[in-house]
Amino acid sequence: MPEAGGAVLGVDYGQRRVGLATGHPLTGSAQPLRTIEHSGDPSDELDAVVREWRPARIVVGLPLAADGSESDMSREVRRFADDLRKRHPGIPVDFHDERFSSAAVDRRFAEARAAGRARRRDARNLDAHAAAVILESWLAEHPAP
Q1: Minimal CA–CA distance to 18: which of 89, 84, 69?
Q2: Residue 10: CA atoms inside 13 Å, Cβ hemisphere, count?
Q3: Which residue among 65, 104, 118, 137 is least enclosed by CB atoms within 10 Å?
Q4: Could you write out the DSSP letters of every residue in the chain?
Q5: What is the pLDDT of residues 33-46, one digit of tens each?
């Protein structure tokens, strides 16, 4: 259960990029923060974001297979989250099924481009938007008390 007074950090982990978003249980909404480009270990940049935002909780998107089973990538994300828990022991880390987040982000981006609110160059920040979709979905399932 999220704390009513604390921000939640959403994470969309990928092998080349990590999307970050922040949200709040009282509003149930999330905003994209940034996308971290990396070639292996995004820990330093991610740790800086955690220090800056001081979230009450971190929600990591879990990329399950279409049938809900574990995949190689979901196992990698679980290792990433375990490392995150070790580096920030006072912050709970939860998972949220991200199977449908990519389609939602693609749809939102296409709608924004059609309405003139986004350009092709904005696509480089899609991972942060995916983190926002994941986080909003998690917040909807875990409303503030």
Answers
A1: 84
A2: 32
A3: 65
A4: ---TTS-EEEEEE-SSEEEEEEEETTTTEEEEEEEEE-SS--HHHHHHHHHHH--SEEEEEE---TTS---HHHHHHHHHHHHHHHHSTTS-EEEEE-TTHHHHHHHHHHHHHHTTS--GGGGGGHHHHHHHHHHHHHHHHS---
A5: 999 988 777 888 99
Do residues 128 and 35 touch, judged by C-beta distance below 8 A?
yes
Kindly report the number of other CB atoms within 10 A of residue 99's CB atom.
14
Q: Which residue has the tokens 């696509």?
A: 123
What average pLDDT is seen over the chain? Answer: 86
Average confidence (pLDDT) over 97-104: 74
Is residue 79 over pLDDT 90?
Answer: yes
pLDDT for res 1: 43
Q: What is the pLDDT of residues 39-68, one digit of tens each?
A: 777 888 999 999 999 999 999 999 988 888
Amino acid sitting at position 62? L
Contact 16, 39 (CB under 8 A): yes
pTM of this structure: 0.85
**Whole-angstrom distance, CA of residue 16 vs CA of residue 37:** 6
